[in-house]
Amino acid sequence: MKRKHKLFILSLLLVLLLKIGFSWQIAIAKPTPTNQQPEKISQTEATPTETETETETKVDTEAEDSYETLLEADFLYQQGEREAAEELYRKVKTPFASHQNTMFSDPINNTENLPTEIQTEWEEAKNAADKNDNLEMLQEFVAQHPEFVPGHLFLAKTLQKNEKKKEALQVLEKASSIFPDSVEIVEAHVKALRKEKDYLEASIAARQFVLVNPEHPEAARFLEIADENFEKFQKKIKGQMVGKGILGTAIRVGGCAVLGNCNVLGTVLGEGIKMGSLLLQGESGLGSRVAEAYKKQLSLVEDEEVVEYVSKIGNSIAELMGRDDFEYEFYVVKDDSLNAFALPGGKVFVNTGSILNTNSEAELAGLLTHEVAHAVLSHGFQRVVTTNLYDSAGGVVRDALKTNIPISSIATSLISLRYSRSNERQADIVGTRVLATAGYAADGLRNFMATLDEKKGGKRSLGFLSSHPQSDDRVDYLEQLIEYNGYNRYAFEGVEKHRGIQEKLM
Question: Is the full-model pTM beyond 0.85?
Answer without folding.
Answer: no
